[in-house]
Amino acid sequence: MAEINTGRVGIWRLWSDLSPELAGEVERLGYGTIWLGGSPPGDLGIAERLLAATDRIMVATGIVNMWATPAEEAAASYHRLNAAHGGRFLLGAGIGHREATQEYRRPFEKIVDYLDRLDAREVPVSGRVLAALGPRVLRLSAERAAGAHPYLTTPEHTRRARAELGEWPLLAPEQKVIVDTDAGRARALARANLSGTYLKMRNYVANLERLGFTAADFAGDGSDALIDALVAHGDAAAAAARVTEHLDAGADHVAVQVLTGSGQDPLPALRAVAEALDLG
């Protein structure tokens, strides 16, 4: 398994919803890494603010978008942040989604070229991970990066990803959780997060089809079976159990994304999950 000091559990949150105050609380709860979601700007000013507000926790991008941020800018940010904060920054990079990027073409070649340019700017293999779902990019993550950061997956995908990566590369999947024991309300919130965006994107659909889901699961707002596979809901123990499934399937680290209603504070759920996992 990987030796990068991410801790076994972290949090994933849109970069625009993160603050130094939240980062400090997350560190105190015992989480090991904060993943900056939603393709933060390449100067990574938000990462700098979170690192300055904390002492121990890693900060990682989940992800820098290769179409939006030139490799040279990402490399400069990588070096600046690690020089100032004792090596606590991990560069996660990926190609995003065909539906969201007008320039999207020849994606695998784009990834290889981006990695070549990071090499030229002396970003070490040990300091970067790739957004990866399918076998080809997972294998590239093992060859040209420290490992993989899959998004919107299941423990079964984690098991398959570990087989593709081999024993040592970092495997750090994201896992959505809702701490709510009302199944109907939790599924409604999950569908609000998933159905209009993620379940319409070809890379996610193709990956889930490889895992055995069918057109019937993607119809409408998604079948209960699909929603429940992608979003753990129930009490904090249920969320912790899903995280543990990923770890047992071969993950080194799981990035927990707490879903809440609009404007609700994520900290109560993050605290409850941390307690259930005994992170403190």
TrEMBL record:
<keyword id="KW-0560">Oxidoreductase</keyword>
<dbReference type="InterPro" id="IPR036661">
    <property type="entry name" value="Luciferase-like_sf"/>
</dbReference>
<dbReference type="GO" id="GO:0016705">
    <property type="term" value="F:oxidoreductase activity, acting on paired donors, with incorporation or reduction of molecular oxygen"/>
</dbReference>
<dbReference type="InterPro" id="IPR050564">
    <property type="entry name" value="F420-G6PD/mer"/>
</dbReference>
<protein>
    <submittedName>
        <fullName>LLM class F420-dependent oxidoreductase</fullName>
    </submittedName>
</protein>
<dbReference type="InterPro" id="IPR019922">
    <property type="entry name" value="Lucif-like_OxRdatse_MSMEG_4141"/>
</dbReference>
